[in-house]
UniProtKB/TrEMBL annotation:
It holds the Pfam family ADH_zinc_N. Residues 18-340 form the Enoyl reductase (ER) domain. It comes from Paenibacillus terreus. Keywords: Acetylation, Cytoplasm, Metal-binding, NADP, Oxidoreductase, RNA-binding, Zinc. Homotetramer. This is Zinc-type alcohol dehydrogenase-like protein.
Length: 343
């Protein structure tokens, strides 16, 4: 019996994005779900910095096509024998696992414990913009920084979101407002500052200038929470100065330089990382929390509390358009998310 195939976009060599072989169109074997996996027919995907970081030039050649892509919206085609949360025909959205093939393919295998029911009020392209950034923002604010989801407990508390106009920042601003925090976002260009204000931020400051003087001008002494989504080491001194005593700083951006944690000592301040792939990568016992939080995000989208941050749409899903999307993200100047739709 001949095995079914499907379209996929991936790589064998790690090359600069302007190289035609940095991402290529291919036909690969269509997978079959086992265990708790779902086989999802992919309708739309979106692109994140993790995509170009994984694809970036390195001295390695893959023996099998490496498929990237960690934001998918689609329809359940088949379920594994141990699946209990979904059935064929269900519309879903999710970010996937960094240690498994990505979702830039016609069909995709995914553990149901990290999959949510797609918001019904938006299309597949808009839904595909949400999972990775929503999980990161949610875990960063509520799991890592320990922000309460009860607005009455956050009265007078302030969060500083560094790099608020990007994918994660765009969701974090909305979630922080929903939780009742005073939100100060950072942005460096008029159009990104405008975007951040439009999402509900109370104030916007420039992250290329010292934080404390700008906060003082707004009548704010310090931030109870800082969520860093941009150049951890570049903003480290500024964050250490701006954090309140016993405050918490969370970052999602890896650093090549050692951070001087002693700067936080006198304030008994906490520093914590957020990496949204941790739960799926280590198969943590609470892995199903991502299923729950995606369902909650979908509910908030359907209620109009959170709006999708899809900003630019490309079609169809192919190597040429994915190279284009990677190049856009590599400029570091995209506002909102780049999504691709249809094979």
């Amino acid at each position: 019996m001949t095995k079914e195939t499907m379209k996929a976009v991936g790589l064998f060599k790690y090359l600069p994005v302007d190289h035609p072989e940095s991402l290529i169109d291919a036909e690969v074997e269509k997978p079959v779900p086992t265990g708790k996996d779902l086989l999802v027919k992919v309708k739309a995907i979106s692109v994140n910095p993790v995509d170009y970081k994984v694809r970036s030039p390195k001295d390695r050649v893959e023996s099998e096509l490496k498929v990237l892509g960690w934001d998918v919206a689609g329809v359940v085609e088949q379920v594994g024998p141990d699946s209990t949360l979904f059935k064929p025909g269900d519309e879903v959205f999710y970010a996937g696992s960094i240690v498994r093939p990505g979702g830039n393919s016609e069909f995709h295998l995914i553990d149901e414990r990290i999959v949510g029911t797609k918001p019904s009020s938006v299309d597949f392209a808009q839904a595909a913009a949400l999972p990775l950034t929503s999980i990161t923002a949610w875990e960063g604010l509520f799991d890592r920084l320990g922000v309460s989801m009860d607005p009455s407990r956050n009265a007078g508390k302030k969060v500083l979101i560094v790099g608020a106009s990007g994918g994660v920042g765009s969701i974090a601003v909305q979630l922080a407002k929903y939780a009742g925090l005073t939100v100060i976002g950072t942005a460096s260009r008029p159009e990104s500052a405008e975007w951040v204000k439009g999402l509900g931020a109370d104030y916007v400051i420039n992250h290329f200038e010292p934080f404390v003087p700008q906060l003082k001008e707004l009548g704010i002494d310090q931030a109870d929470y800082i969520f860093c989504l941009h150049s951890t080491e570049k903003h480290w001194q500024n964050m250490a100065e701006a954090i309140a005593p016993q405050g918490k700083i969370c970052s999602i951006v890896e650093t090549d330089e050692a951070l001087n944690l002693t700067l936080l000592m006198n304030k008994s301040a906490t520093f914590v990382w957020e990496f949204m792939f941790t739960r799926s990568m280590f198969q943590t016992p609470d892995m199903i929390e991502q299923h729950k939080l995606l369902n909650e995000v979908a509910r908030l989208v359907d209620q109009g509390v959170i709006r999708t941050t899809a900003a630019q749409k490309l079609a169809p899903i192919n190597a040429e358009n994915l190279r284009k999307a990677h190049a856009m993200l590599e400029t570091g100047r995209t506002v909102g998310k780049v999504v691709l739709e249809g094979f």
